[in-house]
C-alpha cells in the first residue's frame, strides 16, 4: 500500500501480523469538513479478515472518531470472546492516551 502526503511523497506502509493466537484490530477514520467515516477490522496472523464494523459520524473530530472506532473494535473483541487482542491506530494522540503517555 502507498500513502501520499500533501507534498505527494510516497511512504511504504505494511501490515504486520499479530503474534500467534492473537487478533489484531486496526481502526482508521476518514474525516471531511462536516462528517467522518471509519472502520475497525479484525485479522488473524495470516491476515484473514475475521470481522469488521464500519460507521458514519456526524462530527469531524479525528481523535474522537478514532476513539469511537477503538471502542467498536473492543466491542467486536468482546462479542467474539477474543481475549488476546492488539488494537492498532494511526492516531498518535489516541495511542499515547491509551498507553498513558499523553
From TrEMBL:
Any GO MF annotation of the entry: nucleic acid binding
Domain RNase H type-1: start-end pairs: 29-101
Segments forming a coiled coil: none
PANTHER family: OS05G0353850 PROTEIN, POLYNUCLEOTIDYL TRANSFERASE, RIBONUCLEASE H-LIKE SUPERFAMILY PROTEIN
Official protein name in the record: Ribonuclease H-like domain containing protein
Origin species: Trema orientale (Charcoal tree)
Amino acid at each position: 500500500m502507498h500513502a501520499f502526503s500533501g507534498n505527494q511523497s510516497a511512504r511504504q506502509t505494511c501490515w504486520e501480523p499479530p503474534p500467534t493466537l492473537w487478533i489484531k484490530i486496526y481502526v482508521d477514520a476518514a474525516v471531511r469538513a462536516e462528517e467522518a467515516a471509519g472502520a475497525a477490522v479484525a485479522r488473524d496472523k495470516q491476515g484473514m479478515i475475521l470481522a469488521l464494523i464500519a460507521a458514519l459520524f456526524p462530527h469531524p473530530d479525528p481523535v474522537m472518531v478514532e476513539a469511537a472506532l477503538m471502542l467498536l473494535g473492543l466491542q467486536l473483541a468482546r462479542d467474539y470472546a477474543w481475549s488476546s487482542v492488539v488494537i492498532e491506530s494511526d492516531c498518535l494522540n489516541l495511542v499515547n492516551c491509551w498507553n498513558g503517555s499523553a
